[in-house]
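Look over this record as teaching material.
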Amino acid sequence: MTDKSGIPSGVLKLLRDYKSGSLDETAILARLNATLFEDLEHSTIDHDRARRTGAAEVIFGQGKTPEQLADAFAALTDAGSNVMATRVDDAGAAAILARKPEAEYFSAARIAQLKQNSGPRTTSSIAVVSAGTSDFAVAEEAAVTAEFYDNPVLRISDVGVAGLHRLLARIPEIRSARVIVVIAGMEGALPSVVGGLVDKPIIAVPTSVGYGAAFAGMAALLGMLTSCAAGVSVVNIDNGFGAGFQANMINRL
Protein backbone atom coordinates (compact mmCIF):
# COMPACT_ATOMS: atom_id res chain seq x y z
CA MET A 1 0.00 0.00 0.00
CA THR A 2 1.19 3.53 -0.82
CA ASP A 3 -0.06 7.04 -0.14
CA LYS A 4 -0.62 9.70 -2.83
CA SER A 5 3.11 10.44 -2.94
CA GLY A 6 3.86 6.84 -3.86
CA ILE A 7 5.65 6.17 -0.55
CA PRO A 8 4.82 2.74 0.92
CA SER A 9 2.71 2.93 4.08
CA GLY A 10 5.24 0.78 5.93
CA VAL A 11 7.97 3.33 5.23
CA LEU A 12 5.76 6.16 6.47
CA LYS A 13 5.16 4.27 9.71
CA LEU A 14 8.90 3.76 10.18
CA LEU A 15 9.50 7.49 9.69
CA ARG A 16 6.83 8.33 12.25
CA ASP A 17 8.36 5.85 14.72
CA TYR A 18 11.77 7.44 14.21
CA LYS A 19 10.33 10.92 14.67
CA SER A 20 8.61 9.86 17.88
CA GLY A 21 11.83 8.34 19.21
CA SER A 22 10.61 4.74 19.37
CA LEU A 23 13.25 3.75 16.77
CA ASP A 24 16.87 4.87 16.83
CA GLU A 25 18.95 5.58 13.71
CA THR A 26 20.49 2.09 13.51
CA ALA A 27 17.11 0.39 13.79
CA ILE A 28 15.37 2.54 11.22
CA LEU A 29 18.18 2.14 8.69
CA ALA A 30 18.02 -1.63 9.05
CA ARG A 31 14.25 -1.67 8.65
CA LEU A 32 14.25 0.75 5.71
CA ASN A 33 16.76 -1.48 3.93
CA ALA A 34 14.49 -4.45 4.57
CA THR A 35 11.63 -2.69 2.76
CA LEU A 36 13.87 -2.27 -0.32
CA PHE A 37 15.74 -5.57 -0.54
CA GLU A 38 16.41 -8.77 1.35
CA ASP A 39 19.69 -10.68 1.32
CA LEU A 40 19.12 -14.45 1.19
CA GLU A 41 22.87 -15.07 0.74
CA HIS A 42 22.30 -16.83 -2.59
CA SER A 43 19.85 -14.18 -3.87
CA THR A 44 19.04 -10.53 -3.15
CA ILE A 45 15.29 -10.01 -3.34
CA ASP A 46 14.10 -6.65 -4.69
CA HIS A 47 11.06 -5.80 -2.54
CA ASP A 48 10.81 -2.27 -3.97
CA ARG A 49 10.28 -3.27 -7.60
CA ALA A 50 6.48 -3.21 -7.43
CA ARG A 51 6.51 0.41 -6.26
CA ARG A 52 8.97 1.47 -8.98
CA THR A 53 7.52 -0.46 -11.90
CA GLY A 54 4.00 -1.49 -10.94
CA ALA A 55 4.88 -5.20 -10.93
CA ALA A 56 6.68 -7.24 -8.28
CA GLU A 57 9.96 -8.99 -9.04
CA VAL A 58 9.60 -12.15 -11.13
CA ILE A 59 11.86 -15.10 -10.33
CA PHE A 60 13.74 -16.71 -13.22
CA GLY A 61 13.88 -20.33 -12.13
CA GLN A 62 16.28 -21.81 -14.67
CA GLY A 63 19.67 -22.57 -13.11
CA LYS A 64 18.44 -22.18 -9.53
CA THR A 65 18.30 -25.11 -7.14
CA PRO A 66 14.87 -26.11 -5.79
CA GLU A 67 15.88 -24.70 -2.39
CA GLN A 68 16.96 -21.36 -3.86
CA LEU A 69 13.70 -21.13 -5.78
CA ALA A 70 11.61 -21.89 -2.71
CA ASP A 71 13.54 -19.37 -0.59
CA ALA A 72 13.05 -16.56 -3.11
CA PHE A 73 9.40 -17.44 -3.67
CA ALA A 74 8.71 -17.49 0.08
CA ALA A 75 10.53 -14.19 0.67
CA LEU A 76 8.39 -12.36 -1.89
CA THR A 77 5.22 -14.07 -0.68
CA ASP A 78 5.92 -13.21 2.95
CA ALA A 79 6.34 -9.55 1.94
CA GLY A 80 2.78 -9.59 0.61
CA SER A 81 3.59 -9.55 -3.10
CA ASN A 82 1.99 -11.46 -5.92
CA VAL A 83 4.72 -13.88 -6.96
CA MET A 84 5.58 -15.52 -10.28
CA ALA A 85 8.50 -17.84 -11.04
CA THR A 86 9.27 -18.84 -14.63
CA ARG A 87 11.21 -21.78 -16.09
CA VAL A 88 10.37 -23.91 -13.07
CA ASP A 89 10.86 -27.67 -13.42
CA ASP A 90 8.98 -30.34 -11.45
CA ALA A 91 11.59 -30.44 -8.67
CA GLY A 92 11.48 -26.67 -8.27
CA ALA A 93 7.69 -26.71 -8.22
CA ALA A 94 7.66 -29.39 -5.54
CA ALA A 95 9.98 -27.31 -3.36
CA ILE A 96 7.84 -24.20 -3.79
CA LEU A 97 4.60 -26.04 -3.05
CA ALA A 98 6.13 -27.63 0.05
CA ARG A 99 6.80 -24.12 1.41
CA LYS A 100 3.71 -22.45 -0.02
CA PRO A 101 0.99 -25.07 -0.64
CA GLU A 102 -1.45 -22.36 -1.73
CA ALA A 103 0.70 -21.61 -4.79
CA GLU A 104 -0.19 -22.93 -8.27
CA TYR A 105 2.03 -24.69 -10.78
CA PHE A 106 1.31 -24.60 -14.50
CA SER A 107 3.47 -27.43 -15.80
CA ALA A 108 3.01 -26.71 -19.52
CA ALA A 109 4.09 -23.09 -19.02
CA ARG A 110 6.68 -24.03 -16.37
CA ILE A 111 5.32 -21.23 -14.17
CA ALA A 112 4.70 -21.28 -10.41
CA GLN A 113 2.63 -18.42 -9.04
CA LEU A 114 0.76 -17.13 -6.04
CA LYS A 115 -1.67 -14.24 -6.29
CA GLN A 116 -2.42 -12.57 -2.98
CA ASN A 117 -3.76 -9.28 -4.33
CA SER A 118 -6.17 -8.74 -7.20
CA GLY A 119 -5.59 -5.79 -9.47
CA PRO A 120 -8.09 -4.20 -11.86
CA ARG A 121 -8.94 -6.65 -14.64
CA THR A 122 -8.70 -5.26 -18.15
CA THR A 123 -11.74 -5.49 -20.40
CA SER A 124 -9.73 -5.71 -23.64
CA SER A 125 -8.04 -9.01 -24.40
CA ILE A 126 -4.66 -10.33 -25.51
CA ALA A 127 -4.55 -12.95 -28.26
CA VAL A 128 -1.80 -15.56 -28.08
CA VAL A 129 -1.48 -17.10 -31.55
CA SER A 130 0.90 -20.01 -32.16
CA ALA A 131 1.98 -21.60 -35.40
CA GLY A 132 2.21 -25.24 -34.32
CA THR A 133 1.55 -27.61 -31.45
CA SER A 134 5.34 -27.76 -30.92
CA ASP A 135 5.17 -24.09 -29.86
CA PHE A 136 2.66 -24.86 -27.10
CA ALA A 137 5.01 -24.48 -24.09
CA VAL A 138 6.17 -21.00 -25.14
CA ALA A 139 2.60 -19.98 -25.99
CA GLU A 140 1.41 -21.10 -22.56
CA GLU A 141 4.21 -19.16 -20.86
CA ALA A 142 2.97 -16.02 -22.65
CA ALA A 143 -0.69 -16.73 -21.94
CA VAL A 144 -0.27 -17.60 -18.24
CA THR A 145 1.90 -14.51 -17.75
CA ALA A 146 -0.72 -12.24 -19.30
CA GLU A 147 -3.43 -13.85 -17.16
CA PHE A 148 -1.33 -13.42 -14.02
CA TYR A 149 -1.52 -9.67 -14.62
CA ASP A 150 -5.33 -9.81 -14.93
CA ASN A 151 -5.75 -9.78 -18.71
CA PRO A 152 -8.33 -11.89 -20.55
CA VAL A 153 -6.44 -14.15 -22.97
CA LEU A 154 -7.62 -15.67 -26.25
CA ARG A 155 -5.59 -18.77 -27.14
CA ILE A 156 -5.38 -19.69 -30.84
CA SER A 157 -3.05 -22.59 -31.62
CA ASP A 158 -1.76 -24.55 -34.61
CA VAL A 159 -2.57 -21.96 -37.30
CA GLY A 160 0.79 -21.78 -39.04
CA VAL A 161 1.37 -20.71 -42.63
CA ALA A 162 1.67 -24.28 -43.93
CA GLY A 163 -2.14 -24.36 -43.82
CA LEU A 164 -3.14 -20.73 -44.24
CA HIS A 165 -6.87 -21.49 -44.27
CA ARG A 166 -6.63 -22.35 -40.56
CA LEU A 167 -5.40 -18.86 -39.75
CA LEU A 168 -7.87 -17.08 -42.03
CA ALA A 169 -10.76 -18.83 -40.29
CA ARG A 170 -9.67 -17.30 -36.96
CA ILE A 171 -8.85 -13.75 -38.11
CA PRO A 172 -12.15 -12.22 -36.84
CA GLU A 173 -11.35 -13.54 -33.34
CA ILE A 174 -7.76 -12.33 -33.53
CA ARG A 175 -8.91 -8.86 -34.61
CA SER A 176 -11.05 -8.62 -31.46
CA ALA A 177 -7.92 -8.51 -29.25
CA ARG A 178 -6.11 -5.29 -28.40
CA VAL A 179 -2.63 -6.85 -28.50
CA ILE A 180 -1.49 -9.97 -30.36
CA VAL A 181 1.36 -12.26 -29.38
CA VAL A 182 2.41 -14.43 -32.34
CA ILE A 183 4.64 -17.43 -31.68
CA ALA A 184 6.40 -19.48 -34.36
CA GLY A 185 9.45 -21.61 -34.99
CA MET A 186 10.83 -23.02 -38.26
CA GLU A 187 11.12 -20.02 -40.64
CA GLY A 188 9.06 -17.76 -38.34
CA ALA A 189 6.75 -16.41 -41.05
CA LEU A 190 3.49 -16.25 -39.07
CA PRO A 191 3.92 -12.76 -37.50
CA SER A 192 4.39 -11.18 -40.95
CA VAL A 193 1.23 -12.85 -42.25
CA VAL A 194 -0.82 -11.81 -39.20
CA GLY A 195 0.68 -8.33 -39.41
CA GLY A 196 -0.73 -7.92 -42.89
CA LEU A 197 -4.24 -8.80 -41.76
CA VAL A 198 -4.78 -6.88 -38.50
CA ASP A 199 -4.53 -3.32 -37.17
CA LYS A 200 -3.18 -4.20 -33.70
CA PRO A 201 0.37 -4.26 -32.28
CA ILE A 202 2.07 -7.63 -32.67
CA ILE A 203 4.72 -9.07 -30.37
CA ALA A 204 6.54 -11.85 -32.21
CA VAL A 205 8.18 -14.73 -30.35
CA PRO A 206 10.61 -16.99 -32.22
CA THR A 207 10.85 -20.52 -30.84
CA SER A 208 13.68 -23.03 -30.96
CA VAL A 209 11.50 -25.41 -32.99
CA GLY A 210 12.79 -26.71 -36.32
CA TYR A 211 15.31 -28.86 -38.12
CA GLY A 212 19.05 -28.13 -38.25
CA ALA A 213 19.07 -25.05 -40.46
CA ALA A 214 16.55 -23.42 -38.11
CA PHE A 215 19.60 -23.07 -35.78
CA ALA A 216 17.56 -23.45 -32.56
CA GLY A 217 15.39 -20.44 -33.32
CA MET A 218 17.91 -18.15 -35.00
CA ALA A 219 16.23 -18.51 -38.42
CA ALA A 220 12.86 -17.56 -36.93
CA LEU A 221 14.39 -14.68 -34.95
CA LEU A 222 16.07 -13.18 -38.02
CA GLY A 223 12.95 -13.65 -40.11
CA MET A 224 10.83 -11.83 -37.55
CA LEU A 225 13.38 -9.03 -37.16
CA THR A 226 13.31 -8.48 -40.92
CA SER A 227 9.52 -8.70 -41.19
CA CYS A 228 8.00 -6.64 -44.01
CA ALA A 229 4.83 -6.10 -41.94
CA ALA A 230 4.64 -2.84 -39.99
CA GLY A 231 3.80 -3.00 -36.30
CA VAL A 232 5.73 -6.18 -35.48
CA SER A 233 8.15 -6.10 -32.54
CA VAL A 234 10.25 -9.10 -31.51
CA VAL A 235 11.39 -10.62 -28.22
CA ASN A 236 14.11 -13.19 -27.69
CA ILE A 237 13.95 -16.87 -28.65
CA ASP A 238 11.44 -18.82 -26.51
CA ASN A 239 10.74 -15.73 -24.37
CA GLY A 240 7.04 -16.27 -23.79
CA PHE A 241 7.24 -14.47 -20.46
CA GLY A 242 8.70 -11.32 -22.03
CA ALA A 243 5.98 -11.28 -24.67
CA GLY A 244 3.17 -11.82 -22.16
CA PHE A 245 4.50 -9.10 -19.87
CA GLN A 246 4.93 -6.61 -22.70
CA ALA A 247 1.44 -7.39 -24.02
CA ASN A 248 0.06 -6.69 -20.54
CA MET A 249 1.80 -3.30 -20.45
CA ILE A 250 0.39 -2.33 -23.86
CA ASN A 251 -3.07 -3.59 -22.97
CA ARG A 252 -3.14 -1.31 -19.91
CA LEU A 253 -2.18 1.90 -21.69
Q: What stands out?
A: The CA atoms of residues 17 and 223 lie 58 Å apart. The longest strand covers residues 179-184.
